[in-house]
Specification:
about 260 residues; alpha/beta; TIM Barrel; 8-stranded parallel barrel; disordered N terminus; binds 1,3-dihydroxyacetonephosphate
């Protein structure tokens, strides 16, 4: 008889955000190599986010592997006169299961505001994709002691008027801006503090402790530091940039406990 006392532990959620790297040809070759190494890894969720031009081909080449594909950004409208944009419906047809929304590079370099991010999250959820919603403080905020206030504000504005059902489909990624691409990851203690706060805030916002919502960490994750991060009670996975671009290093990250 199954033990109904112990809640099922959440599967580690390991995602690679390729940003603006790899042509479609390079992406498919990478995906095939990855699938060869990670096939049938059912004890964790594995996601890669290639550029738009590679989504369709990568999804097809990963069919049956269990590895899922994410878009890196989407527009909130279904279609229309929005030159250069891609909708959630298009990402669904290209074989995506997730979409990264609100990445700090989108916020900082492309001026995305919390209100737009909120619209994007709603559109992603309505399309049946799972959002990977990114939040994180910059160094100035951290040095001024504003980290938790910034995270709270990003959560409240980004998730405004979402339902409890919506939030259960959402992955939250805590990515401190100062840790992205710098080789200076948050310490496990810093990350745990932020993750615990995020979980507590979600509990207040959605009127119940959302134990089932993955809260993942991003920012200079590597094969060398993943284990100490994953040992923290409120860290359920990672969002990896640079170290996801190499098959060997991404496989080592995915298999951090093996
Ligand atoms: P790095 O792992 O290169 O620091 O990037 C993190 C990130 O931005 C993932 O979305």
């Amino acid at each position: 008889m199954p033990n109904t006392q112990d809640p099922t532990p959440m599967k580690p959620f390991i995602a690679g955000n390729w940003k603006m790297h790899k042509t479609a040809g390079e992406a498919v070759a990478f995906a095939q190599a990855l699938a060869g190494e990670l096939n049938a890894a059912q004890d964790r969720d594995i996601v890669i986010a290639p550029p738009f031009t590679a989504l369709h081909a990568v999804s097809r080449s990963l069919a049956g592997s269990g590895i899922k594909v994410a878009a890196q950004n989407l527009h909130w409208e279904r279609e229309g006169a929005y030159t250069g944009e891609i909708s959630a419906a298009m990402a669904v047809e290209a074989g995506c299961s997730y979409a990264i929304i609100g990445h700090s590079e989108r916020r900082k370099l492309f001026g995305e505001k919390d209100e737009e991010i909120n619209r994007k999250l709603k559109s992603v959820l309505a399309s049946g994709l799972g959002p990977i919603f990114c939040i994180g403080e910059n160094l100035e905020d951290r040095d001024a002691g504003r980290t938790l206030a910034v995270l709270g504000s990003q959560l409240r504005k980004g998730l405004d008027s979402l339902t409890r059902r919506d939030i259960m489909e959402t992955v939250i990624a805590y990515e401190p801006v100062w840790a992205i691409g710098t080789g200076r990851a948050a310490t496990p203690g810093q990350a745990q503090e932020a993750h615990a706060f995020i979980r507590q805030t979600l509990g207040k916002m959605f009127d119940a402790p959302p134990a089932g919502i993955p809260v993942i960490y991003g920012g200079s994750v590597s094969p060398g530091n993943i284990r100490s991060l994953m040992e923290q009670p409120d860290i359920n996975g990672v969002l990896v940039g640079g170290a996801s671009l190499d098959v060997d290093s991404f496989v080592r990250i995915v298999n951090f406990d093996k």
